[in-house]
Design goal:
The complex is a heterodimer of chains A (about 400) and B (about 130). Chain A contains 13 helices and 11 strands. Chain A is α/β, with parallel strands linked by helices. In chain A, strand 2, helix 2 and strand 3 form a beta-alpha-beta unit. In chain B, a hairpin with a 4-residue loop joins strand 5 and strand 6. Classes of the chains: A alpha/beta (about 400), B mainly beta (about 130).
Chain lengths: ~400, ~130
Amino acid sequence: MPGLRGEAAVVGFAEYKNERKYTGARKFTIEQWADLAKLALDDAGLSARDINGIVCSDIRESGMFTPATIVEYLGRPVNFAERIDLGGATSVGMIWRAAAAIELGICDVVVCAAPARPIPSNPNSRPVDPRRYFGASSVEWGSPQAEFDIPYGNVAQNCGYAMIAQRYASQFGYDPRAMAKIVVHQRANAAANPNAAFFGQPVTVDDVLASKMIADPLHMLEIVMPVAGGSAVVVASREVARRCKHRPAWVTGFGEHLTIKTPTYAQDLVHTPVGPASRQAFAMAGVKPEDVDAVQLYDCYTITVLLTLEDAGFCGKGEGMDFVNDHDFTTAGDFPMNTHGGQLGAGQAGLAGGMSHPLEAVRQIMGRAGDLQLGQCDTVYVSGTGGVMSEQAALILRGD
Amino acid sequence: MDFEAPLPTPTPTSAPFWAGLKDGVFRMQKCDDCGGWVFYPRSRCSHCLSDALSWHEISGAGTLYTFTIARQPTSPHFAREVPQRLAVVELDEGVRVTTTLVDVADADIRIGMRVKPVYEPVSDDITLLRYRPA
């Protein structure tokens, strides 16, 4: 099939530690962007002069013209600049676009960054805009969400994911202990990850099920915890990758699929867009689900993991609970998944939460995962999920 | 800080829908070209992008497609409504609407159960579309 030829790779990365309470020096988003870019370039063995592309998302200091603002701040003219608006799928979307631009030959070193530490307190403090409580739902006049969803309280993420889980349960059955096991195994991985918010803090199935019910059937420990953090990766051409420090993680396949904004309007709530996205990614890379050494699945909630396992093809539709019960997702297990702990174990640092999955795939392929390093790791499947399983993307990353 | 639950502001496109709810009637758009039902109201058909849409009165009856009971407010605006019985109803016309369930005990809520509309005036201009067991 047409697509990437596998001629671009992630060659370096940077990651701030995930912290529940950030107490370090505060910097603006754009300053964090520059920090992370420098750290990731250093990691790759490249210099600022090498940058000729960037992929960003929003920054707090500038609502419009974000790419140009960042390029100006970095002092680096570029041939390629994109701003991605895919929620939790943003980072996966950044990486395949960077790889595509490199294969087109319009650039050869692209920095993708997702800063997510708190910024300095504004001395000109302004009252909190109540609209911020609607999160990803728009209250602007004429917005479908403002008119048909928000007035009923269908706001933010918890209720949407909960309603997907309830629908799944009505069609295929539900095993709360299997769902809790996803958390337990990811927390076991996180317990050995010094960058994780829950470093050294494993939990049991009973702990998960005893945590507060937030929106039936989702318990608190099945939902990510927001943390401060941030990360960046450098994507480079084959020629550049040859002179970098680490084993390149080649971007050999990707897929992206968007269907709806609000789950109410999904054609089928339990067949998610990560299905078509993953099929394209596997076909492009010429690998099958059974060929991968590890999976790094976007995990805002346990139900996201379950549906991604099914829809990406690791098990059949309706078989997810059995699959979870039959497999060990720890780094010592038969199906290593979210080996850094995922967001359920490491915390969700804004959009960097979705960068943590490709970044961990790269770390494993490079052989730099420390105590969490897998014995062999050459092929990794990665997913990203934005909105309420409404915009999803997948990557296949491979080492030579 | 006290938050008022936000109300919809009808648009030129959606006004017939909201006027209908105020009169206790569910009006939905249907495409004159492809015959598809369209919800929420649009200026073009969500099946074929035709602009030949006409308004039809429907019963509003349907089945419960999914629901959750939010034990924590989904935003501070809904603190007074906790536990929120959030739901998605599949209308007999095949389209789905976001709503909340009323007049039902939590233990009696079943996905697939028949439900019917409850027109609840929340201001002089706006009536919201809630649902209860049929």
